[in-house]
């Protein structure tokens, strides 16, 4: 998958959001995620590092209602093992390296978050697992929804049923 760079004006962001939504509706048989390059500003003094940012509804196609992050996990740790029915998410790893394994009921794909400027936008409905490639890597998530345990699918067989129903045209 390409790693497109985008730095958007407000107008550009609106267009991108419209395209994103159109794409989400159009490509129901494709895995629904986007790997994006977050806006990044490196300080001219390399000792002072860099700064990356993303704005809800401008750089990413949803408003942010919640943020959370996972820390102090060891190399080899596996987390996730769930899908969301409603939640859109932006995942990024500002420190370390984490593999995100995605599954849509048919196809599987692994995305490596191994640079602070990489952002992974996950549309609802994808099963995901995360594998820590380095000790203490930090996984940050910006989410479109408040926390709601009922919005999760944590059982794999239930997920396969859910995908089957979606493909059959049954929508919530
Ligand atoms: P969980 O989703 O199980 O983490 P992971 O899938 O990465 O292993 O979340 C861990 C715990 O944190 C679980 O008890 C639910 C709680 N939690 C909240 O209370 N609010 C939140 O926004 C999130 C993401 C989790």
What would your notes on this structure say?
It is globular, with a radius of gyration of 16 Å. The chain has a single domain, classed as Sandwich (Jelly Rolls), CATH 2.60.120. A hairpin with a 7-residue loop joins strand 2 (39-42) and strand 3. It has helices at residues 10-26, 156-167, and strands spanning 33-37, 39-42, 50-53, 66-70, 78-84, 89-95, 98-103, 108-113, 118-122, 127-132, 138-143, 152-153. It is α+β, with helices and mostly antiparallel strands. The structure holds thymidine-5'-diphosphate. Thymidine-5'-diphosphate binds at residues 66, 68, 70, 79-80, 82, 147. Thymidine-5'-diphosphate is lined by residues 66, 68, 70, 79-80, 82, 147.
Short recap of the structure:
The chain has two helices and twelve strands. The chain is α+β, with helices and mostly antiparallel strands and 172 residues long. Residues 1-28 have low confidence and may be disordered.
């Amino acid at each position: 998958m390409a790693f497109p760079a985008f730095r958007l004006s407000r107008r550009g962001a609106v267009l991108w959001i419209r395209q994103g939504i159109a794409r989400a509706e159009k490509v129901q048989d494709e895995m629904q995620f986007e790997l994006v390059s977050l806006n990044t500003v490196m300080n001219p003094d390399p000792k002072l590092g860099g700064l990356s940012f993303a704005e809800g509804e401008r750089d990413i196609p949803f408003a942010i209602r919640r943020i959370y992050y996972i820390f102090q996990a060891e190399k080899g740790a596996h987390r996730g093992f769930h899908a969301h029915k409603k939640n859109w998410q932006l995942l990024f790893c500002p420190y370390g390296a984490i593999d995100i394994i995605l599954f849509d009921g048919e196809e599987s794909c692994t995305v490596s978050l191994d640079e602070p400027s990489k952002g992974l936008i996950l549309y609802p409905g994808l099963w995901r697992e995360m594998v820590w490639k380095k000790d203490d890597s930090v996984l940050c998530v910006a989410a479109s929804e408040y926390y709601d345990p009922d919005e999760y699918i944590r059982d794999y067989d239930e997920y396969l049923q859910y995908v089957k129903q979606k493909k059959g045209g049954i929508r919530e």
